[in-house]
């Protein structure tokens, strides 16, 4: 068995391996790596294990240099990452290669955003900040509706009664989506990603991503950019006009997404990650979906403690409050320059 560096010529074989592996996620695909390279210019460091000419394991990996030092991350902009391997031998070989790479490049740390518990590995420290939420999607709308708590059903019905008009598309809906998204993250005090990021996702995954947009007449009310992988739909970036919160806009948006995904044959809804104690966590928890801890792990090289680059870090409080007060146009201008440092 050999450990080899990823090159674009391997992309098709890489994705074929992931399509058949139960531990693989959308974030592992080669298209995700092209998005990271095209938008952020982070250096590609991905590895794969090959045995008898066959790929038996992959590790998408990028070198990120920024304000907080250097780090090897699997994978930037992703809630999932880490190693996908057919067996323990391939897994351990990829881990050893990644650790050697981290030490050779003298990064602060190596971060693996595993979606499932991995075999124990000496030298790694766990981080239990995040959880994910998931829910089965039955093909019957009545069964789907009845699977949610009463309060969620009530908010969905409010959205139905309001009469939002839904559209599904791609790049043609990007401007309306981006305005809603940028305004939403500003209200949270979070720097906004560049519009190019979303355009790249839609370009790299033309049949596996889309935008669902809700309108009130001609006015954009809420939107979500979602990814599709095997049986799963994953809403990934979203925004809503707070004017419509009492009309159940957020609940109705995800209901509409699930309803439409079920009609297309998808059977699993992945609500993504949230940090315990945040508003996003409480909103998702209210749906009573299955909650699963994400077993992220770190191998420290130059750093002496686990990083804490999430918005709940008290060190960011002043910046967050200042960001909430900035004009929207200014956050769109400088946000992408800041957020590049938060992989």
List the helices and strands and how they pair.
Layout: E1 2-5, H1 11-20, H2 30-40, E2 43-44, E3 47-51, E4 54-59, E5 62-66, E6 69-74, E7 84-85, H3 88-105, E8 109-112, E9 124-127, E10 130-136, H4 141-146, H5 150-162, E11 165-169, H6 174-188, H7 195-204, E12 209-216, E13 219-229, E14 232-240, H8 249-263, E15 268-275, H9 279-285, E16 290-293, E17 296-300, H10 317-324, H11 328-339
Please give a quick description of this structure.
By secondary structure, this protein is of the alpha+beta class. It is 36% helix and 28% strand.
Structure write-up:
36% of the residues lie in helices and 28% in strands. By secondary structure, the protein is an alpha+beta fold. It has two domains: 2-122, Aminopeptidase; 132-293, Aminopeptidase, CATH 3.40.630. The protein has a seven-stranded mixed beta sheet, with helices on both faces. Strand 13 (219-229) and strand 14 form a beta hairpin.
Head-to-tail CA distance between termini: 31 Å
Number of strands: 17
Question: What's the number of structural domains?
Answer: 2
- Percent strand: 25-35%
Radius of gyration: 20 Å
Strand order of the largest sheet: 11-12-13-14-15-10-16
Q: Name the CATH architecture of the largest domain.
A: 3-Layer(aba) Sandwich
Global morphology: globular
| Class based on secondary structure composition and strand pairing | alpha+beta
Assembly context of the chains: single chain
Low-confidence stretches: none
The largest pleated sheet is described as: 7 strands, mixed
Please identify which CATH superfamily of the largest domain we are dealing with.
Gcn5-related N-acetyltransferase (GNAT)
Share of residues in helices: 25-40%
What is the CATH topology descriptor of the largest domain?
Aminopeptidase
If helices are DSSP runs of H or I spanning 4 or more residues, what is the number of helices?
11
Secondary-structure element string: EHHEEEEEEHEEEHHEHHEEEHEHEEHH
CATH class of the largest domain: Alpha Beta
């Amino acid at each position: 068995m050999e450990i080899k560096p990823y090159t674009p010529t391997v992309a098709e074989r890489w994705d074929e391996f992931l399509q058949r592996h139960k531990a693989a996620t959308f974030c592992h695909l080669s298209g995700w790596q092209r998005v990271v390279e095209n938008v952020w210019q982070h250096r590609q460091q991905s590895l794969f294990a090959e045995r008898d000419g066959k790929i038996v394991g992959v590790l998408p990996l990028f070198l990120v240099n920024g304000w907080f030092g250097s780090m090897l991350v699997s994978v930037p902009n992703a809630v999932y990452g880490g190693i996908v391997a057919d067996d323990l031998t391939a897994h351990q070989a990829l881990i050893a290669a990644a650790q050697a790479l981290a030490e050779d490049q003298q990064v602060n740390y190596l971060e693996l955003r595993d979606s499932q518990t991995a075999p124990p590995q000496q030298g790694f420290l766990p981080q239990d900040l995040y959880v994910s939420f998931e829910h089965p999607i039955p093909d019957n709308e009545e069964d789907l509706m009845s699977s949610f708590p009463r309060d969620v059903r009530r908010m969905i019905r409010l959205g139905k009664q309001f009469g939002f008009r839904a559209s599904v598309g791609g790049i043609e809906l990007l401007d309306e989506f981006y305005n809603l998204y940028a305004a939403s993250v500003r209200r949270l005090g979070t720097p906004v990603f560049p519009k190019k990021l979303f355009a790249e996702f839609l370009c790299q995954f033309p049949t596996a991503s889309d935008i669902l947009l809700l309108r009130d007449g001609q006015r954009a009310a809420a939107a979500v950019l979602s990814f599709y992988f095997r049986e799963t739909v994953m809403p990934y970036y979203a925004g809503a006009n707070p004017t419509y919160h009492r009309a159940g806009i957020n609940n109705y948006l995800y209901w509409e997404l699930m309803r439409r995904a079920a009609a297309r044959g998808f059977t699993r809804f992945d609500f993504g990650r949230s940090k315990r104690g945040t508003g996003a966590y409480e909103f998702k928890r209210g749906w009573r979906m299955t909650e699963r801890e994400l077993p992220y792990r770190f191998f420290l090289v130059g750093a002496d403690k686990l990083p804490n680059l999430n918005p709940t870090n008290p060190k960011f409080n002043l910046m967050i409050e200042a960001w909430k007060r900035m004009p929207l146009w200014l956050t769109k201008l400088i946000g992408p320059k800041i957020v590049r440092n938060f992989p």
